[in-house]
Amino acid sequence: MHEFELISSITSDVSVGDDVTLGIGDDAAALRLTGDTVVTTDILVEGVHFKRQWSPARSVGRKAIAVNVSDVEAMGARPSAIVVALAFPKDLDQVWVAEFEAGVKEECARAGVSLVGGDLSSSPTVTVCVTAIGDLEGRLPVTRSGARVGHVVAVTGNLGWAGAGLVTLQRGFASPKEPVAEQLTPSVPYGQGVIASDRGATSMLDISDGLLGDLGHICERSGVGIDIDTSLIEIPDPVARVAAATGRNALAFVLAGGEDHALAATFPTEVLPEGWRRVGVVVSGDAVSVDGHPWDGAAGWDHFA
Ligand SMILES: Nc1ncnc2c1ncn2[C@@H]1O[C@H](COP(=O)(O)OP(=O)(O)OP(=O)(O)O)[C@@H](O)[C@H]1O
Ligand SMILES: Cc1ncc(C[n+]2csc(CCOP(=O)(O)O)c2C)c(N)n1
Ligand SMILES: [Mg+2]
């Protein structure tokens, strides 16, 4: 199949939301948003973020959308639109590309975003770059810099699952299935970003590199410390099972495992929105601690370490 046939087959059945005034098919799309626009991009590279032996194409397509929309959620914006650039080897099976695009559309529907454009190229390995756009709808962005001493630190979504899934896959296993599924496609708590913003969240981010590492960004930008109270941390059963089977520390998966794309935020009061759970408190200082002590385990993911 040639490039333009491929584009037609990908874009023939795309439906869009009311904020799209011009969808796929021209040099650019047009959107009519009601407030300030948030824009974010994240890249997925074969061998770095996924392996084709581990991930069905559909999961890669879904993950590419999920990890980007979670950044829009983390700003307290309503996810609006997505563009997807895909580069892949010339000899890649066309079914792979079709399934990837099906995954993109499936996750767009789950996230409530419109696919409004993209790009295709050939490349030695599969690379996906997505840009996501969100509408603040009159709200202020929830940044990383608004945490103040005494605020409650809370999370919504899964923690530890994707990291446990990665270790499972690295050891050559495909089960337990739930953590593996979360590694292949994180379940982002869609809708919670706007809810947190409306409930007064003072800072927020999505957890891509591990809870402690990412909360460190809030500490740095807000000029505070954060203390995590491990008595408040639940260890999900499948995560505990992977830890036991691999001789690892289950708490380390939850605190330092990456790629769950849960949301973490600080709130000025104890009363949290439904679905959020308290994990700690903002303290004076400049770093994240665990039960009052520095964490001596591995920090979060670093692409260039
Ligand atoms: N190559 C780049 N050029 C310009 N800005 C960049 C570049 N890479 C990252 N940034 C910006 O730096 C900030 C932090 O980016 P980073 O990728 O660490 O955060 P993230 O996207 O939330 O996390 P993750 O990539 O782990 O999901 C963001 O504002 C991002 O737009
Ligand atoms: C094949 C394979 N090897 C390793 C990993 C683990 N991994 C890759 S990127 C990342 C952090 C988030 O990335 P980013 O900061 O780019 O969002 C993690 C934990 C994986 N998913 N697949
Ligand atoms: Mg990024």
Automatic annotation (TrEMBL):
It catalyses: thiamine phosphate + ATP = thiamine diphosphate + ADP. Mg(2+) 3 binds at residues 27, 71, 206. One of its GO terms (molecular function) is thiamine-phosphate kinase activity. The keyword Metal-binding applies. ATP binds at residues 118-119, 144, 208. Mg(2+) 2 binds at residues 42, 71. Residues 25-134 form the PurM-like N-terminal domain. Mg(2+) 4 binds at residues 27, 40, 71. Residues 148-290 form the PurM-like C-terminal domain. The keyword S-adenosyl-L-methionine does not apply. It comes from the Bacteria. Mg(2+) 1 binds at residues 41-42, 119. Its EC number is 2.7.4.16. Substrate binds at residues 49, 259, 301. Keywords: ATP-binding, Kinase, Magnesium, Metal-binding, Nucleotide-binding, Thiamine biosynthesis, Transferase. Pathway: Cofactor biosynthesis; thiamine diphosphate biosynthesis; thiamine diphosphate from thiamine phosphate: step 1/1. Mg(2+) 5 binds at residue 209. Catalyzes the ATP-dependent phosphorylation of thiamine-monophosphate (TMP) to form thiamine-pyrophosphate (TPP), the active form of vitamin B1. Belongs to the thiamine-monophosphate kinase family. Reaction mechanism of ThiL seems to utilize a direct, inline transfer of the gamma-phosphate of ATP to TMP rather than a phosphorylated enzyme intermediate. NCBIfam families: PRK05731.1-4, thiL. This is Thiamine-monophosphate kinase. The lineage of its organism: Bacteria, Bacillati, Actinomycetota, Actinomycetes, Propionibacteriales.
